[in-house]
Amino acid sequence: MNTLTKLALGLMGQLGPRPPVGTTAGTIELPPPHSGGGMPLMEALRKRESQREFEPNALPQQTLSDLLWASAGINRPDLGGRTAPSAMNSQEVQLYVALPQGLYRYEPTAHTLQLEAATDVRRVSGYQDFVDTAPLDLIYVADHTRMRLVPAAQREAYAFAAAGAMAENVYLYCASAGLATVIRAWFDRQALSQAMDLGIDEQLLLAQTVGTAKGNG
Ligand SMILES: Cc1cc2nc3c(=O)[nH]c(=O)nc-3n(C[C@H](O)[C@H](O)[C@H](O)COP(=O)(O)O)c2cc1C
Question: Smallest Cα–Cα separation from 203: which of 121, 144, 126?
Answer without folding.
Answer: 144
